[in-house]
Amino acid sequence: MATRFEIALHGSNPASLRAAAEEALDEIDRLEDQLSLYRPGTEIARVNAEAHIAPVRVSPGVFRLLERARALSAETHGAFDITIAPLVQEWGFMGGTGAMANANLVSEARAFVGMHHVQLDPSEFTVRFDRQGVMLDLGAIGKGHAIECASELLREAGVTSALIHGGTSSTCAIGRQPNDQPWKVAITAPFNSSDQPFAVVELENESLSVSAVWGRSFRAGEKILGHVIDPRTGAPATGAFMTALVLPSPTEGDAFTTALITAPELLDDLHASRPAMRSLVLSGNHTAPKMDGRGIIPLDRARENL
Fold it and tell me: pLDDT digits over 129-142, tens only?
């Protein structure tokens, strides 16, 4: 998952808290060994190598995640899609920071993208591709899923106050801080234009997911092209340059923030289906952004008029 995971816990028994934290971090490592596209021998690596030849059996947990990814892809009308790997590869983001792609090769890669190429058999827990060249990449959902699973283990261990995060993009809060205040998480300023956070979000039994086009990105003329690829066009997404969502599920949060980078027009439907969701979407361009904030308020309230 190429990121550092950290856990902060509070409680009266340090030994049990340490044991719970170690179990949660071990779970994240275990999931990495199942889901990584890059590690040889993982379940996803085996699916990518063999599923076009014959059905590949996976563990029930991986199968359920693939089913969930398919449902999230359908809900976002394909804006989120775990078969995006061939396009990620063509644009130089698979292990790199990106580069202009050959239009003909992008067109060819698009033929391998789409969940309709993936057949899931719930009776056998098998995955089958309908053609060679299809490849799964769970990078847009794996971190949120790992944090969600780790948080469930912490709750089962009796932890009532904790914060777990992976990098700056996925965070989950359990309960409140010891001072009975919600957990507070900062969102980095767009394009690192300031040392100050862009917003501070309060969380209680919620998750915060953030997606942005900077980080793994490159400049093409006046445009900054990031690693989020639009499955529908085959090109780096330009619908929004930062999205942030507060939801109960970090798995959903990661999927939806990725989808909103591609298709910010999905925001109304997501709010309608999840009324408690809080959101912040910055679209337009990075010099003159437009902000749609619903429940996440930037520190500088003047930004609401952007």
Answer: 999 999 999 999 99
